[in-house]
Write a structure and sequence with these properties.
single chain; 190 residues; alpha/beta; Rossmann fold; five-stranded parallel beta sheet; 9 helices
Length: 190
Amino acid sequence: MTESDTAESPVFSRAQAYIGRRVSEAIDRIDPATIDRAVAILAKAPATFVYGAGRSGIIGRAFAMRLVQTGLTAYVIGESVTPIVRRGDAVFIVSGAGESQSSVQTANIVRREGADLVVLTARSTSKLAHAATLLLPIEFADDPERHTLAPLGTLFESASLRLTDALVAELMRVRRETEESMRRRHAIMV
Protein backbone atom coordinates (compact mmCIF):
# COMPACT_ATOMS: atom_id res chain seq x y z
CA MET A 1 0.00 0.00 0.00
CA THR A 2 1.40 3.39 -0.92
CA GLU A 3 1.15 6.59 1.05
CA SER A 4 -1.32 7.98 -1.51
CA ASP A 5 -3.57 4.94 -0.94
CA THR A 6 -3.93 5.85 2.74
CA ALA A 7 -4.78 9.51 2.13
CA GLU A 8 -8.44 10.43 1.68
CA SER A 9 -9.42 9.51 -1.84
CA PRO A 10 -10.78 12.25 -4.10
CA VAL A 11 -13.39 9.72 -5.29
CA PHE A 12 -14.41 9.01 -1.69
CA SER A 13 -14.94 12.72 -0.98
CA ARG A 14 -16.93 13.24 -4.15
CA ALA A 15 -18.98 10.08 -3.59
CA GLN A 16 -20.01 10.83 -0.03
CA ALA A 17 -20.96 14.41 -0.93
CA TYR A 18 -22.85 13.25 -4.03
CA ILE A 19 -24.75 10.51 -2.15
CA GLY A 20 -25.66 12.88 0.68
CA ARG A 21 -26.90 15.58 -1.69
CA ARG A 22 -28.91 13.26 -3.95
CA VAL A 23 -30.50 11.43 -0.99
CA SER A 24 -31.50 14.70 0.70
CA GLU A 25 -33.00 16.07 -2.52
CA ALA A 26 -35.04 12.89 -3.10
CA ILE A 27 -36.43 12.74 0.44
CA ASP A 28 -37.23 16.46 0.42
CA ARG A 29 -39.52 15.88 -2.60
CA ILE A 30 -41.86 13.64 -0.56
CA ASP A 31 -45.00 15.49 0.48
CA PRO A 32 -45.01 15.95 4.29
CA ALA A 33 -48.69 14.89 4.31
CA THR A 34 -47.61 11.53 2.89
CA ILE A 35 -45.12 11.12 5.73
CA ASP A 36 -47.87 11.96 8.23
CA ARG A 37 -50.14 9.33 6.66
CA ALA A 38 -47.38 6.71 6.81
CA VAL A 39 -46.79 7.44 10.49
CA ALA A 40 -50.54 7.26 11.21
CA ILE A 41 -50.83 3.89 9.43
CA LEU A 42 -47.86 2.44 11.29
CA ALA A 43 -48.91 3.85 14.68
CA LYS A 44 -52.46 2.45 14.52
CA ALA A 45 -51.73 -0.97 13.03
CA PRO A 46 -52.00 -3.91 15.42
CA ALA A 47 -48.91 -5.30 13.65
CA THR A 48 -46.57 -4.13 10.92
CA PHE A 49 -44.99 -6.59 8.50
CA VAL A 50 -41.88 -5.53 6.63
CA TYR A 51 -40.60 -7.00 3.37
CA GLY A 52 -37.75 -6.38 0.99
CA ALA A 53 -35.52 -8.56 -1.15
CA GLY A 54 -31.73 -8.30 -1.31
CA ARG A 55 -30.24 -5.05 -0.05
CA SER A 56 -33.73 -3.55 0.29
CA GLY A 57 -34.46 -6.42 2.67
CA ILE A 58 -31.52 -5.41 4.84
CA ILE A 59 -32.98 -1.91 5.13
CA GLY A 60 -36.38 -3.45 5.90
CA ARG A 61 -34.95 -5.63 8.68
CA ALA A 62 -33.34 -2.59 10.31
CA PHE A 63 -36.67 -0.76 10.12
CA ALA A 64 -38.60 -3.67 11.64
CA MET A 65 -36.12 -3.81 14.53
CA ARG A 66 -36.59 -0.09 15.20
CA LEU A 67 -40.38 -0.44 15.08
CA VAL A 68 -40.17 -3.10 17.80
CA GLN A 69 -37.91 -0.84 19.83
CA THR A 70 -40.54 1.92 19.67
CA GLY A 71 -43.00 -0.50 21.28
CA LEU A 72 -44.83 -1.52 18.12
CA THR A 73 -45.41 -5.09 17.00
CA ALA A 74 -43.39 -5.78 13.87
CA TYR A 75 -42.38 -8.83 11.87
CA VAL A 76 -40.16 -9.52 8.89
CA ILE A 77 -41.99 -11.39 6.15
CA GLY A 78 -40.24 -14.65 5.35
CA GLU A 79 -39.12 -15.47 8.88
CA SER A 80 -40.41 -18.77 10.26
CA VAL A 81 -42.06 -17.11 13.28
CA THR A 82 -43.96 -14.47 11.29
CA PRO A 83 -47.74 -14.85 11.64
CA ILE A 84 -50.30 -14.23 8.93
CA VAL A 85 -51.22 -10.68 7.93
CA ARG A 86 -54.73 -9.67 8.93
CA ARG A 87 -57.16 -6.89 8.08
CA GLY A 88 -56.06 -3.68 9.83
CA ASP A 89 -52.37 -4.60 9.87
CA ALA A 90 -49.78 -2.64 7.92
CA VAL A 91 -47.30 -4.05 5.46
CA PHE A 92 -44.25 -1.97 4.55
CA ILE A 93 -42.43 -3.09 1.39
CA VAL A 94 -39.05 -1.67 0.37
CA SER A 95 -38.27 -2.27 -3.32
CA GLY A 96 -36.09 -0.16 -5.58
CA ALA A 97 -37.53 -1.28 -8.91
CA GLY A 98 -40.93 -2.25 -7.51
CA GLU A 99 -41.19 -5.13 -9.97
CA SER A 100 -39.68 -8.16 -8.21
CA GLN A 101 -42.02 -11.12 -8.35
CA SER A 102 -41.78 -11.71 -4.60
CA SER A 103 -42.68 -8.10 -3.75
CA VAL A 104 -45.60 -7.95 -6.17
CA GLN A 105 -46.87 -11.33 -4.96
CA THR A 106 -46.63 -10.15 -1.35
CA ALA A 107 -48.54 -6.97 -2.25
CA ASN A 108 -51.31 -9.02 -3.88
CA ILE A 109 -51.71 -11.14 -0.74
CA VAL A 110 -51.73 -8.03 1.46
CA ARG A 111 -54.45 -6.38 -0.58
CA ARG A 112 -56.53 -9.57 -0.57
CA GLU A 113 -56.28 -9.77 3.23
CA GLY A 114 -57.31 -6.12 3.66
CA ALA A 115 -54.15 -4.77 5.27
CA ASP A 116 -52.71 -1.35 4.49
CA LEU A 117 -49.78 -1.50 2.07
CA VAL A 118 -47.07 1.16 2.37
CA VAL A 119 -44.59 0.97 -0.50
CA LEU A 120 -41.18 2.61 -0.52
CA THR A 121 -39.83 2.47 -4.07
CA ALA A 122 -37.71 4.31 -6.62
CA ARG A 123 -40.30 3.77 -9.36
CA SER A 124 -43.69 5.35 -8.82
CA THR A 125 -44.97 3.71 -12.02
CA SER A 126 -44.08 0.16 -10.96
CA LYS A 127 -46.54 -2.69 -10.36
CA LEU A 128 -45.81 -2.50 -6.65
CA ALA A 129 -46.45 1.25 -6.53
CA HIS A 130 -49.85 0.76 -8.19
CA ALA A 131 -50.83 -1.77 -5.51
CA ALA A 132 -49.95 0.57 -2.63
CA THR A 133 -52.39 2.03 -0.15
CA LEU A 134 -49.73 4.68 0.41
CA LEU A 135 -46.72 5.33 -1.82
CA LEU A 136 -43.44 6.73 -0.55
CA PRO A 137 -41.56 7.53 -3.77
CA ILE A 138 -37.81 8.07 -3.62
CA GLU A 139 -36.92 8.69 -7.24
CA PHE A 140 -33.60 9.61 -8.77
CA ALA A 141 -33.00 11.00 -12.25
CA ASP A 142 -29.95 9.31 -13.72
CA ASP A 143 -26.78 11.25 -14.39
CA PRO A 144 -23.28 10.22 -15.48
CA GLU A 145 -21.78 10.61 -11.98
CA ARG A 146 -24.14 8.06 -10.44
CA HIS A 147 -22.47 5.15 -12.24
CA THR A 148 -19.12 5.73 -10.52
CA LEU A 149 -20.08 7.54 -7.30
CA ALA A 150 -23.25 5.61 -6.34
CA PRO A 151 -23.46 2.41 -8.42
CA LEU A 152 -26.45 0.09 -8.64
CA GLY A 153 -29.02 0.74 -5.89
CA THR A 154 -26.80 2.82 -3.61
CA LEU A 155 -28.91 5.99 -3.77
CA PHE A 156 -32.19 4.19 -3.16
CA GLU A 157 -30.82 2.10 -0.31
CA SER A 158 -29.15 5.07 1.38
CA ALA A 159 -32.33 7.12 1.04
CA SER A 160 -34.47 4.23 2.32
CA LEU A 161 -32.39 3.89 5.45
CA ARG A 162 -32.50 7.62 6.12
CA LEU A 163 -36.25 7.83 5.44
CA THR A 164 -37.14 4.86 7.67
CA ASP A 165 -34.92 6.16 10.47
CA ALA A 166 -36.68 9.53 10.21
CA LEU A 167 -40.06 7.74 10.32
CA VAL A 168 -38.92 6.09 13.55
CA ALA A 169 -38.04 9.49 15.02
CA GLU A 170 -41.54 10.74 14.16
CA LEU A 171 -43.09 7.58 15.62
CA MET A 172 -41.09 8.21 18.79
CA ARG A 173 -42.61 11.67 19.03
CA VAL A 174 -46.16 10.49 18.35
CA ARG A 175 -45.86 7.59 20.80
CA ARG A 176 -43.96 9.66 23.40
CA GLU A 177 -41.04 7.28 23.29
CA THR A 178 -37.51 8.16 24.32
CA GLU A 179 -34.14 6.68 23.56
CA GLU A 180 -34.20 5.22 27.08
CA SER A 181 -37.59 3.53 26.59
CA MET A 182 -36.36 2.14 23.28
CA ARG A 183 -33.11 0.92 24.83
CA ARG A 184 -35.15 -1.19 27.30
CA ARG A 185 -36.63 -3.02 24.29
CA HIS A 186 -33.28 -3.53 22.61
CA ALA A 187 -32.40 -7.22 22.17
CA ILE A 188 -29.13 -6.65 24.00
CA MET A 189 -29.34 -4.16 26.85
CA VAL A 190 -26.70 -1.50 26.30
